[in-house]
Amino acid sequence: MNKKHLCIIPARMGSSRFPNKPLAKICGIPMIGHIALRACLEPIFDNVVVATCDEEIISYCDSINIKTILTSNKHERATDRTQEATEKLENELNIKFDFITMLQGDEPMVTPQILKKIVETLERYNTPILNLVGKIHDMEEFTSKNCVKITINNNSEALYFSRSPIPSSLNDKIMPIAYKQFGIIGFERSFLDTYSSLKATYLEQIESIDMLRCLENNYKIKILTIDNPIFPVDIKEDILKIEKHFSECKVFDKYRQKFIYNS
């Protein structure tokens, strides 16, 4: 029996570092549009849905025929928003999903190939949580608070996540081998309910990292490392870097003509 896969894209307008970020335009198309349309290019998903508490995002998604779920405006964590949206969609469609891929609303460089790899790895390992990570290549990114760093054990499981530089080297002139978390996380469906039933934890709150709630409650997080040079939009300046990349992007070419909007 085929497993049912859902892609949820949590997004909100109230980012403290970049207000109204989901509707910021990249090559003339709002960022949330890029992300949702790229997810729709991967046929392994039974549904692709944007989860938001903002009517502006819903209105835009309606205009490009992307389904939305209205969620509470009180969520501090994207994972809690994802859980609420998943439950509402299941009730609406009267179905149960087996696996959920949470694709953060600031990852416009995601590709269908990356999403497929997440889904296939989730099924292969049958793991409750799967995080996508990549190597950090420069000191600026390594020291940035916007970049969530991760340390990994020999079983490809997360040891810790932090916005501080980890692992820390005694020799400040040498950058250690380091990894960053991407905003693309796979879940076994039942674990989403478990996550939201847990209280927010101390480290989760001070670091502002969803996955620390899992680690502080002794849940293992499987790690999938990729080599693809993708990066999120954390601040306005990131858009210029992504637009340069999109100028030669074959994935962008697959949807750009149909969804071009005036700048």
UniProtKB/TrEMBL annotation:
One of its GO terms (cellular component) is cytosol. One of its GO terms (molecular function) is 3-deoxy-manno-octulosonate cytidylyltransferase activity. Keywords: Lipopolysaccharide biosynthesis, Nucleotidyltransferase, Transferase. GO terms for biological process: lipopolysaccharide biosynthetic process. It is an enzyme of class 2 (transferase). InterPro entries: Cytidylyl_trans, KdsB, Nucleotide-diphossugar_trans. CDD domains: CMP-KDO-Synthetase (cd02517). Its EC number is 2.7.7.38. Signal peptide: none annotated. NCBIfam families: kdsB, PRK05450.1-5. This is 3-deoxy-manno-octulosonate cytidylyltransferase. The lineage of its organism: Bacteria, Pseudomonadati, Bdellovibrionota, Oligoflexia, Silvanigrellales.
